[in-house]
Amino acid sequence: MIPDAYELKRIVRAHRDRFWCSDLLRAAEFAPIYFFDDQAAFDGDIVDRAMTRVFTGPLRLPHPSVIFEVREQRASPSGLIVCARADGDIVEATFLMRKRAPRGWTDCLVRIWMHPDGKAEIEATRPSGATRRSAVTAKSLPASSGAR
To answer: 61, 74, 92, 97: which sits with the fewest CB atoms below 10 Å from its CB?
Structure first.
């Protein structure tokens, strides 16, 4: 199955200035795509344990810029896309969705800056087009804690 992110790259190349977070999408234009075709497996325990290990140390991307896509198994939306890039020790990312009906893409829904100390800044769009920014602290829990 061909990832929807290839279509997104084509659209971004032609219409990048129409997107919120267009600077971040510019970095994703030539980024490799990590495609997860099975949402159930992605949501499963193996990926959960791997993510717990990843979050115990500094957050690192496999490439300076990368796209992650998870194909949803339910009817709508059809794809969840994260475009991320490293900026020194900070990882910056934005989240978009591919919709089946009506067919098309959302704009960037949220922009996140993940800092090496576990803090994250989140900026979200609202229907009015205004943005709101807040800071949160994330803490990784050991896999044996049973917390979810």
So the answer is: 74
Which residues, other chains included, contact 43 with Cβ-Cβ below 8 Å and sequence gap of 6+?
none
Cα–Cα dist 84/8, whole Å: 14
Please state the separation of Cα 124 from the chain's center in Å.
13
Q: What pairing do the DSSP bridges indicate for beta strands 131-137 and 110-114?
A: unpaired
Task: Tell me if 106 sits within 8 A of 94, measured CB to CB.
Answer: no
Give pLDDT tens digits for 15-26: 888 888 888 888
> 93 is written with which tokens?
């990312």
The answer to whether the Cα torsion of 70, 73, 74, 77 is positive or negative is positive
pTM for the whole structure: 0.74
- Return the structure tokens found at 84: 């991320």
Classify burial at 33, counting beta carbons within 10 Å of its beta carbon; exposed 0-12, middle 13-18, buried 19 or more.
middle
Is it the case that residue 3 has pLDDT exceeding 80?
yes
Neighbours of 114 (CB within 10 A): 20
**Residue 74: alpha-carbon gap to chain centroid:** 19
Task: Kindly tell me the sign of the dihedral angle through the C-alpha atoms of 140, 146, 147, 148.
Answer: positive
